[in-house]
Design a protein that fits this description.
Shape: elongated
Distance between the termini: 43 Å
Oligomer: single chain
Strand content: under 5%
Helix content: 55-70%
Largest sheet: 3 strands, antiparallel
Radius of gyration: 30 Å
Length: 399
């Protein structure tokens, strides 16, 4: 739809709002269109001439603010904001607040929309101030204000404030439980905020504070993979590899798709416990119930390091027949090159290069929320900003 067509639709909506206001205020009286304010016609002329700024000004001037037309003003401002024309949205919502006849609830609604305008414009301090006032003034809009305030602290990476505001949204009986999609999503976000604080504490050498934040994260979301990884890291540093192994194997049990992510930490902990055979037994048992190229490659590399190249190749070839992946094919070609005669070796080199290039251009992780994909695991999706939605890709392109 063209901009002109879009704004003509806005004009129609505004005109309907004006009529509702007129008929609501003059019940029982005979109405005609003879007394339509000239500013409405002027606004339509501006829109048809693609002078949208003047058109909006004319409509706002013509449309009385009352119970029947308040939603029309709000909707017009929201349309401007959704189209990225935040300055116009701010002007419309400020114009609303200039009307002395607004009720307390109407003022609160306009304040919330103005806070959303400032948030969209990146004027976060003004948005934060409006939202804090709104939380005190309007119990009905408190939750909406808290959600937006949490978003602002998230953007500012003020994790302490984000936890403090987000925690008020959750009822205590729902913390750490999946009651309600919105509540569950917020609990997941709060778990990641605590993980951010734990990571900062670890960098500062404060393992006690890091542990406290991890426990808080796990209270919000007992299934949080990131919190468990951080917990295992601390246990490893505290020379408690057996406890770290329990935590990591718990991740593999609850979230098997993350096995490739936890393998390095799992290997380190088993190595610290001087029990590499135990790691191999665990991984072989894992493969008996699930498919994972990453686990197969780990076992293949172990055989390869022991000098058993033929057995490593056989194991990988057998896996690829049942569960083909680009990653597995690339590794099989590398192993095959170790023992091939010259002519075959040249052919395999060409195939290896194709497999390498194909693999290098394939993403390893994808966001379940928006579809963003990449080679690196992000706990917060860089595209849609959702927390905990990025996971390893499974199938031929992944693990």
């Amino acid at each position: 739809m063209s901009d002109t067509g879009f704004f003509v639709l806005v004009f129609i909506a505004v005109g309907i709002g004006w009529l509702l206001g007129r008929f609501t205020g003059l019940k029982g009286q005979h109405q005609t269109f003879d007394n339509v304010p000239p500013a409405v016609y002027k606004g339509l002329n501006y829109l048809l001439s693609e002078k949208t700024d003047q058109g909006i000004e004319s409509f706002v001037e013509a449309l009385d603010v009352n119970d029947a037309t308040l939603d029309t003003h709000i909707a017009l401002g929201n349309l401007m904001r959704s189209r990225g024309e935040v300055d116009k949205a701010i002007r419309i919502h400020l114009n609303l607040l200039d009307h002395p006849g607004l009720t307390r609830d109407q003022q609160d609604t306009a304040h919330l929309e103005l806070a959303r305008d400032y948030h969209k414009a990146g004027v976060l301090d003004r948005a934060e101030s409006l939202l804090k006032d709104l939380m005190q003034q309007s119990p009905a809009l408190r939750t909406k204000a808290l959600v937006l305030l949490t978003d602002i602290y998230d953007e500012e990476k003020d994790w302490q404030q984000a936890v403090a505001s987000g925690e008020q949204i959750l009822s205590k009986r729902r913390i750490g439980s999946p009651h309600g999609h919105g509540q569950h999503a917020m609990a997941g976000r709060l778990a990641h905020y605590c993980c951010e604080l734990a990571s900062e504490a670890l960098k500062a050498g404060d393992s006690g504070e890091a542990t406290r934040q991890i426990k808080k994260a796990q209270k919000f979301d007992p299934q949080c993979v990131r919190a468990c990884l951080l917990e295992a890291e601390i246990l490893e540093h505290q020379n408690q590899p057996r406890r770290a192994i329990q935590v990591l194997e718990g991740i593999a049990e609850r979230n098997p798709s993350f096995i490739a992510v936890i393998l390095p930490a799992l290997k380190s902990s088993y190595s610290s416990a001087a029990d590499m055979p135990g790691l191999h037994r665990f991984l072989e048992n894992f493969l008996a119930h699930r498919k994972s190229t990453a686990v197969v490659l780990f076992l293949v590399d172990a055989l390869y390091e022991q000098g058993d190249v033929d057995r490593a190749g056989q194991l990988l070839a057998s896996e690829l027949q049942q569960h083909p992946t680009l990653l597995g094919m690339k590794r099989l070609l590398e192993i095959s090159l170790e023992s091939s005669i010259d002519d075959a070796r040249r052919n395999l080199l060409g195939l290896q290069d194709v497999a390498r290039q194909a693999r290098e251009h394939k993403p390893a992780f994808r966001c379940d929320n928006c579809g963003f994909s990449g080679r690196q695991l992000h706990w917060q999706c860089p595209n849609c900003k959702s927390w905990g939605s990025v996971a390893p890709i499974l199938g031929i392109d992944g693990d």
